[in-house]
Write a structure and sequence with these properties.
single chain; alpha+beta; Helix Hairpins; Heat Shock Protein 90; 3 domains; five-stranded antiparallel β-sheet; 10 helices
Length: 484
């Protein structure tokens, strides 16, 4: 019972019923149109034939001056009927037993065909000189009779024909249609079932393959993408969706592993140093050192969690950008001044080279976070007693180019496209001194992208440069906000 319900509710069954119903409706409509067309065509042909016969009879009777009124029997014609039939013999297209022919001369019937017997064809005198009309006379025919009347001088020519043969022909056509319609309908159901099964078989294959794909084999693809029809496009979109799911799953796995690894390190240090401090008495100076170390690890944990929280806000579109025009020279100098103390430990100086006198439309808080990450990385991975250069210069198309340059161990060229990916870090940087979970540059890229700007990196064996290209501000649109 469940299988029957499933089959009845399936697209294959519904498509078959729709196809068959549409075929049946079209068949009935076609039959009706053919019936109407044939009826009108046969009737028109009959009218043409009747007119031709009436004119032919008139031609032989009137124009050849056959004296029917004063007929005298001779060796050729024994009666007026013989004369008339001899005159019209070659002009009567239909069987004379079915044609009703009557000729009046001076309001007197001079001839009528034998099949009229005791009947006569009589109509009002006001009928036009040549008229086509239908009438009913049950003594002559059970069906309507089609008649043409031709007036010419003293003659009135009547040629009539019962349309029962037309009716019979059309009735036979209807019988044939009624007989064939169920057959065609059954054939349409079978054909519709075969066509729908054939066309939907690829859907079954897609469903089967989709059921086989799990989180463990997201590398597999559904076949059929090569086709350009609806199924091909569906398969293409489903494969794209699977790729996005795989990317998300990989990201989540990477996120879990990286976050767990990075969070575990400071937590382990915190736990170890705290346990050591509790096991034996120490001097106040030693406790201070433990607290300092714990404080550093706590700051590190806070930074990791802040970056994770920020990434979560990015993924859920929870970031609101409030752009205002800011003087770029002062903005870069303000941020750089905040990092001078950080560079003292390694003997690194920060040199700001900016004299663009330009404004840029930015969200100050977000862009401060982006440049802080870049300058912090430049100090962190820079050589001791070297220089970090923060430079801004105008370029074509009303754009500003901002560079953060440091000297130190470079980034291999093949790795440059990956450094903005989440959780990606160059292996040489994975040590406790540098820390991080590889989220800093991905956060920077997201912030720069929200400002309709570009960021990319260049590096060789001794120097690394991060470059940001951003449009100048149309500051007349906004109230000017100072960088500090």
């Amino acid at each position: 019972m469940n299988k029957l319900k499933l089959f009845v509710s399936s697209t294959r069954f519904k498509a078959t019923i729709w196809y068959s119903s549409l075929f049946l409706i079209l068949e009935i409509l076609l039959g009706v149109l053919i019936y109407i067309y044939l009826y009108n065509t046969l009737l028109d042909n009959l009218d043409v034939g009747l007119k031709s016969q009436a004119k032919a009879i008139l031609h032989h009777v009137a124009e050849k001056h056959k004296d029917i009124d004063n007929f005298v029997p001779d060796s050729v014609y024994a009666s007026p009927e013989d004369l008339i039939w001899d005159v019209i013999y070659n002009e009567v297209a239909l069987n004379q037993r079915n044609n009703y022919i009557q000729i009046d001369s001076k309001d007197k019937i001079v001839f009528k065909s034998a099949n009229l017997e005791d009947d006569t064809l009589s109509f009002p005198q006001k009928i036009a000189p040549i008229s086509l009309f239908s009438f009913t006379d049950t003594t002559l025919s059970a069906k309507p009779i089609r008649c043409v009347k031709l007036n010419a001088g003293q003659y009135k020519i009547f040629v009539a024909f019962p349309i029962h043969q037309i009716i019979q022909t059309l009735t036979s056509l209807v019988h044939i249609f009624v007989l064939l319609a169920p057959i065609f309908f059954i054939v349409s159901i079978i054909g519709g079932g075969i066509i729908s099964a054939k066309s939907l078989s690829r859907i079954d294959a897609i469903i089967k393959k989709t059921e086989e794909i799990t989180a463990l084999n997201l590398d597999e693809k559904i076949s059929g993408e090569k086709y350009s029809d609806e199924y091909g496009r569906l398969v293409k979109k489903m494969n794209e969706m699977i790729s996005r799911i795989k990317t998300s799953v990989d990201y989540m796995n990477q996120f879990s592993i990286s976050a767990a690894h990075e969070l575990k390190t400071p937590l382990t240090i915190l736990r170890g140093e705290t346990e050591i401090a509790l096991k034996s008495r120490k001097t106040p100076e030693e406790y201070i050192e433990v607290l300092k170390s714990n404080y550093e690890e706590t700051i590190r944990l806070t930074k990791i969690i802040d970056n994770l929280f920020f990434i979560s806000k990015i993924d859920n579109s929870l970031i609101d950008i409030n752009k205002k025009p800011i003087y770029i020279d002062e903005f870069l100098k303000s941020i750089s001044d905040n990092f001078k103390i950080l560079g003292i430990e390694k003997g690194i100086t920060i040199n700001v080279q900016s004299s663009t006198n330009a404004f840029v439309d930015i969200d100050k808080e977000l862009m401060t976070q982006a440049f802080s990450n870049l300058i912090d990385n430049a100090i962190k991975y820079g050589e001791e007693k070297s220089e970090v250069v923060v430079k801004a210069e105008a370029v074509i198309n009303d754009k500003i180019k901002i560079s953060v340059i440091n000297k130190g161990e470079g980034i291999p060229n093949e790795l440059l496209p990956k450094i903005f990916d989440r959780f990606y870090r160059v292996e040489t940087s994975r040590n406790r001194n540098t820390g991080g979970v590889g989220l800093g540059l991905s956060v920077v890229k997201a912030i720069i992208s929200w400002h309709d700007a570009e960021i990319f990196a260049k590096s060789d064996l001794k120097t690394t440069e991060f470059i940001i290209v951003i449009k100048k501000s149309q500051k007349s649109k906004y109230p000017i906000q100072q960088a500090v």
